[in-house]
Structure formats: C-alpha cells, structure tokens
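Entry 14. Structure prediction run on the chain below.
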Amino acid sequence: MLPELAFLHTAAVHVDTFERLVRRLAPGMPTRHLVDTSLLAEALATVASTLLPTRQLIEATALALGKTTACRVLLVPGAWERFVAGDMAAYEDRIRQCIAANLEDVDAIVLAQASMAGAVTQTMLKNCPVPLLSSPGLAVEAALRLM
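Output returned:
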C-alpha cells in the first residue's frame, strides 16, 4: 500500500495546483487535502508581508551555500486584488506580465506564494532564460523524496 501525501491549504484554490503536481510527479500516489482558511486570515495581513520572509530565506540559503546574492523583491501590481476577487485568469496574467518585464539582469525568479505557481506554464518554463522557482513544485518533490 502506498503512503498517503496530505496537504494543509490556506485557500481552496491551492488544491488543484498540488493535486496536478502529485499526478505529474507520482501518478497513483494517494492524496488528502484539508483547507483551513482561518490560517491565512490569522497569518497574512497583506500580500506584501511575504516579501521580507522570502528575501530572508533566499539570503540565508545563499549564505549557507557560501554564495553571495543581490535579491530584488517585487510586488506584482494589482495581482492580489484579482486573487481576492476570484479572478484567477487576471491574477495569473498579471504575474506572467511581471515575470516577462523583469527577466533582465537576474539569475532566477522566485515566486513567493503558492498561489502564483499556476501562472507559470510549461511553455514559459521551456522558453524562460532563467529558472522560475515556485514553492508548490519544490515542496511536492521534497515530500516525495522523504516518503
């Protein structure tokens, strides 16, 4: 019997993202998804609150690896309002526009929130001149390695 991979989400919109990742990375792996929106309400005052922790994580990881980094953080204009309104197509479009506008002079682009991962298409991944990193894919890959 395969072990089960369980997820705790802060919004229902994340269930499909993680389910698709598991189906692609580990077909047949049983999953369970629990959504508790109160976690987001208590932990996140504004989307801008993700910028400092993301920067700190990137800088700490670089330091641990003995690397230097110049981390530039950007807030995608108008995206969070689209997310809250439930307009995922416009939300993801704004993210794609921001990625396209900021490809110069960077070694990688890190998406700070799980909800942003849906904006990255396979075509973008294939054609992007720098790595596009997002937490859902990396998290599922790490969880599967631990199983």
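The longest helix spans residues 51-64.
Filed with the rest of this week's runs.
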